[in-house]
């Protein structure tokens, strides 16, 4: 989903250090955490809402005791503030928004859900820590969620993949958003604009010319009387 490790490795690995404490959100049954371990990043904690999935991943990677697996709601992480150098998600936010009918106008519930996750991500990151999000959502859909000053981070974007492009967002805590990004972020807090009523041109064949002529004559009569 969203490409295998090799498709985004060149974007991801330069942002990581071997000593980084990495948190993977919504790990599912993806091999991402294990691939990070094989790539030289051994301190990886992975969380998922499903206890069944977490138990299966513990069994699958029992031969790698350094990898940690926890059952947890990504909207309410059970870690102390400043616990991680890197938080990583691949498709988790997309999964949380699958019920949305219109990606251009996300419901208040969807906005709140994403905000809960991002607020928790910001909380558990150390100053200077990084949040990395890999998704199918293009900037015109996703930037407005990430570009909120209250999270206290900057935002960069890149794409990866052949043919169909996926999106790689990098947020660094302690840096600032640009003015343009803040403007995009403000849009999601604004109520949706009401639809513009249709404008119909009047058909000249149906105009009431006789009424118009009578009004004109009456106006001339009043003017002459004055």
Automatic annotation (TrEMBL):
Single GO term (MF): S-adenosylmethionine-dependent methyltransferase activity
Pfam family, one: Methyltransf_11
Protein name listed in UniProt: EEF1A lysine methyltransferase 4
Example of a GO biological process term: methylation
Keyword Cytoplasm: no
InterPro entries registered for this protein in UniProt: Lys/N-term_MeTrsfase_sf, Methyltransf_11, SAM-dependent_MTases_sf
Family: Belongs to the methyltransferase superfamily.
Organism domain of life: Eukaryota
Residue ranges of domain Methyltransferase type in the record: 24-132
SUPFAM superfamilies (alphabetical): S-adenosyl-L-methionine-dependent methyltransferases (SSF53335)
């Amino acid at each position: 989903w969203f490409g295998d490790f090799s498709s985004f490795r060149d974007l991801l690995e330069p942002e990581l250090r071997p000593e980084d404490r990495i948190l993977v959100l919504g790990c599912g049954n993806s091999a991402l955490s294990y691939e990070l371990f094989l790539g030289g990043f051994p301190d990886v904690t992975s969380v998922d809402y499903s206890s069944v999935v977490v138990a299966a991943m513990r069994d699958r990677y029992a031969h790698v005791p350094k990898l940690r697996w926890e059952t947890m709601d990504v909207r309410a992480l059970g870690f102390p503030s400043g616990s991680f150098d890197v938080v990583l998600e691949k498709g988790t936010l997309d999964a949380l928004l699958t019920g949305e009918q219109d990606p251009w106008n996300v419901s208040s519930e969807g906005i709140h859900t994403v905000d809960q996750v991002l607020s928790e991500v910001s909380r558990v990151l150390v100053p200077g820590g990084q949040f990395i999000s890999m998704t199918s959502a293009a900037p015109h859909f996703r930037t407005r969620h990430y570009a909120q000053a209250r999270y206290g981070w900057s935002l960069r974007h890149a794409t990866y993949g052949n043919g169909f492009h996926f999106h790689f967002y990098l947020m660094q805590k302690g840096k600032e958003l640009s003015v343009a990004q803040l403007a995009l972020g403000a849009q999601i807090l604004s109520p949706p604009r009401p639809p513009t009523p249709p404008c119909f041109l009047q058909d000249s064949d149906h105009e009431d010319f006789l009424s118009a002529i009578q009004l004109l004559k009456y106006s001339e009569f009043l003017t002459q009387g004055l």
